Amino acid sequence: MIRFENVGLRYGLGPEILSDLTFGIEPNSFQFLTGPSGAGKTSLLRLMLLSLKPTRGLVKLFGKDANLIQRSEMPHLRRKIGVVFQDFRLLDHLTTYENVALPLLVRGKMESDYRTDVTELLKWVGLGERMHVLPPVLSGGEKQRAAIARALIDQPSILLADEPTGNVDPPLARRLLRLFIELHRSGTTVVIATHDLGLMDQYGARRIVLNEGRIQIYD
Asked: Residue 20 and residue 9: Cα distance in Å, rounded?
């Protein structure tokens, strides 16, 4: 689903922060992306999302060369990708429920078709009693859970999650991991960037370790 071949990335005229990355993300796979702070994990996720283009090398998404994808194709491709950002990116003028339902609304679905699914998912992530409040009222952990629910609601082909358990307590982190695992079992490819070694130890998934701009893979 994702293929990197000799990919390098630099910002401006600075040194490369990612160098000679060659690896693939297979369909229906589950992997953790890990490494020290500043190793470039978020930049690597942005390359996977095609919100960044590599300085050199080849990135393919769903078999398409990122450099050849037309602007008109991007919305369709990105609808196949669920993303959990570290800064949540919730819209403050929409309720928790409306934020989570937004990907479905953008696709033109009727609320009557998705109301039950959104409500049940919010209950599952512990936000059943917070679905009608605005994001400024939510705690950091609640915003994190809302962002995760929004990424999952449309059952994406790929889920890219940047530190998705960073603002929640250990019991909820384990519960969210189970949710990601169930999503994977339903056919979604999952990539979770995390520093949490305990979380990774709970599930024997492939690990992509990023350090000093290069990767090592442990299957």
From this structure: 9
Number of domains in the chain: 1
Residue 216 forms beta bridges with which residues? 209
* Residue 112: domain span: 90-155
In a domain, 211, yes or no: no
What are 186-202's pLDDT values in tens digits?
899 999 999 888 889 88
- 141 domain-assigned: yes
Task: Quick: pLDDT tens for 72-109.
Answer: 888 888 889 999 888 889 999 999 999 999 999 988 89
Q: Are 190 and 159 in contact (CB under 8 A)?
A: yes
Contact 18, 44 (CB under 8 A): yes
| pTM score above 0.85 | yes
Matching residue, tokens 């990335």: 9
